[in-house]
Each structure stands twice: as structure tokens, then as C-alpha cells.
Amino acid sequence: MTSLDPATSADQGATRAARSARTQAIIARIDNWAKLLGLAWIAPLLRLATGENPRAQLKDIWRTLLVPLVAIGVFLTLWAWAAPKVETSLGAIPGPMQVWDQVGVLHQDALAEHAKEAAFYEKQAAKNAELIAAGKADEVKTRSYAGKPTFADQILTSLKTVFMGFVLATLVAVPLGIMAGLSPTANAALSPLVQLFKPVSPLAWLPIVTMVVSALYAGGEGGLPKNFIISAVTVTLCSLWPTLINTALGVATIDKDLVNVGRVLKLGLWTRITKLVLPSALPLIFTGLRLSLGVGWMVLIAAEMLAQNPGLGKFVWDEFQNGSSDSLARIMVAVLTIGIIGLLLDRVMLALQTLLTFQGRR
């Protein structure tokens, strides 16, 4: 047998240690982002694959992956057992399989609608080509397809609406929050208004918003639909308060030494806000933004129902009015979709908070 040179063995050991350290560093970075996405079980699986403390990794896998899966399984089992026992005006409550079947039906409906749209544009293009060939180019007309929106289209409409409402709320709430945090007088002026309007339901705002938008917004060719504007403004009015309150709190509680530094350096107001105030208050501002986005997404569904904006809220209302045997299952598809999208929106905001503040927390 040949024995390894001690120096060679030491070099190999150092190489293995360095490789292991690099692997663990990569896993640690993956773990940070996986937790933000609700995938905390990925890192324990990777560590288990590298042989790091199998007992501890299996315990983490059980807690972060298997326990949630068991809970979901129990929920689905109870749902499947209890659903047929409850009779409604639309029939028995659909179980998980009936709801899943409607996901497939909605997908097939979307494919059929896309086929109709493609056929419409092909027919229009052929007709226009014939007119041009016949020297009647002045009679060429281009029309948009006016078929019913698919479920995916309605999801996209809801996302556009909540995004517009959220952006408007942010543009109003952040400056007002900074003003309230910097000035006790401004805080005293804004505080009663916040407490007065924060609890108001979207159902109370909607008639007022409808009348105001109808009076002021003309719309017209290529403009945003009036129902879209009404829903977005309602979302704005209901979702701006968490951002305003958290921004004011974040600005008011920044380190006083930073304020004193700004005064000593004789920094202008805009410089103090952008260089000192905002970076220090950003974690609380993002907390407010996450809460506002969650409130906005919840409010949106009620606003779309009543404003008839063609999003998920209108989808739920139309299915309720339809009253067919499959309507309840489709409503439950929409409910689950709303919940999943709300979760994803919150995770996106949490990831942005981590990127921009370097201290995002679950």
C-alpha cells in the first residue's frame, strides 16, 4: 500500500473544507430568498443532500414541508366530506374535484374564445385584403374583437386595477406621511381625518366615487373605461391609510442624531428627506405598502362587483347571477385564485422590501 504524503492530505482537506464552505454559502443565499417565497424547505433539502446534520435537516423538512402538506390534505379531506352535505339554492357545495374540474372547463373556454378571436381577425384581414385588391382601400375598417373576456383576462384586469389604485394611494400617502412625521402640526391636522375615513367601507365610497367620476371623466376613444377608473379610485381611497400611518411613524421615529446631522450640515429640506429621512423610514414604509396592497386587493373584488369592472369581482357576481349547477364551483375557483394572487402579491412586496432595505423580515 502507498501512503499519502501528509502535505498532500492537508491540501486535500483544505480543498474539501473550502468547497464545503462555498456550498454552504450558496445554500444560505438560496435559503434567504426561498423563505421570502414561502419555500423554506428547499435549504434543508439541499443541506441534507450535502450530508450536513441529517437529523436536524429532517426535522426542518418535517416542519416546513410535510406539516403544511398534511394540513392541506386534512383540509381537502374535510372539505370533500362536508361539501355534499350542504345544500344551497345552486345545489350541493362542490368538493375539491368538482372545483378542479371547473378549472379545466375555464381553460377550455379560454381556448375556444382565443380560437374565435383568431378566426375573427383572419376573416377581417381577408375582407380588407379583398377591398384593397378591388381598389376600395377607403372602405377598409379595423375593428377590435368584442367577445367575452376569459378568466385569465379578468385576472389581468383585476391586477391592472389594483396596481393603478395602489400606485395612486402610494403617491398620496407617502408625501402626506412624510409631512406628518416631520411636522407635529401637520400630524395634528391629519390625524383626525385619518381616524375618520380609515374605517369607511368600499361599499360606502363606491356611490360617491361613481358620481364624481361620471361627472368629471369623459373617457372617449382609447381612454380608460369608466368602470376601471371607478374601481381603481375606490381601491385608492380604502388602501392609502396603512401606508400613510406607517410612513408617518417611520419618519417620526428616525434617529434624532440624523436630524441633528442634517441641521449641522445645513442640508436643504429635499436633501434631508431623500438622503436621511427616507432611507431610515423605508422598512416601516414598506410595511405600510404591504398592508395597503393587501387591503387594496381585498377591496377590489367588492368594487368590481358593484362597478361592473370586468375583473374577478364581476366574474364572481356574474356566476352568482347565472345560477347554473356549475356556478358555485366556478365561484370557488375565483375565491382560491384571489387568495393565491393575494399571497403572491405579498411575497413580491416582501422581496422588494428585502432588496431595497436589506432588512426585510417575514
Descriptive account of the structure:
This protein is mainly alpha-helical and 362 residues long. It folds into three domains: 14-84, no CATH class; 91-139; 151-357, MetI-like (MetI-like fold). 78% of the residues lie in helices and 1% in strands. The chain is built from twelve helices and two strands; from the N terminus they run αααββααααααααα. The chain has helices spanning 6-36, 42-49, 54-82, 96-133, 151-182, 184-197, 202-216, 226-252, 256-264, 269-307, 312-322, 327-357; strands at residues 87-88, 91-92. It has a two-stranded antiparallel sheet. A hairpin with a 2-residue loop joins strand 1 and strand 2. Helix 10 (269-307) packs parallel to helix 11. The chain is globular. The model has no long low-confidence stretch (mean pLDDT 85). It is a multi-pass membrane protein. Keywords: Cell membrane, Membrane, Transmembrane, Transmembrane helix, Transport. It is found in: Cell membrane. One of its GO terms (cellular component) is plasma membrane. Residues 155-349 form the ABC transmembrane type-1 domain.
Radius of gyration (CA) equals 28 Å
The largest sheet has its strands arranged as: 1-2
Total of DSSP H or I helical runs spanning 4+ residues = 12
In total, the number of strands is 2
How many domains in all? 3
Primary descriptors:
single chain, 362 residues, MetI-like fold, 3 domains, globular
Set down the secondary structure blueprint.
Elements: H1 6-36, H2 42-49, H3 54-82, E1 87-88, E2 91-92, H4 96-133, H5 151-182, H6 184-197, H7 202-216, H8 226-252, H9 256-264, H10 269-307, H11 312-322, H12 327-357
Antiparallel strand pairs: 1-2
Helix pairs in contact: 1-2, 2-3, 4-12, 5-6, 5-8, 5-10, 5-11, 7-8, 7-10, 8-10, 10-11, 10-12, 11-12
Family: Belongs to the binding-protein-dependent transport system permease family.
Subcellular location: Cell membrane
Domain ABC transmembrane type-1: 155-349
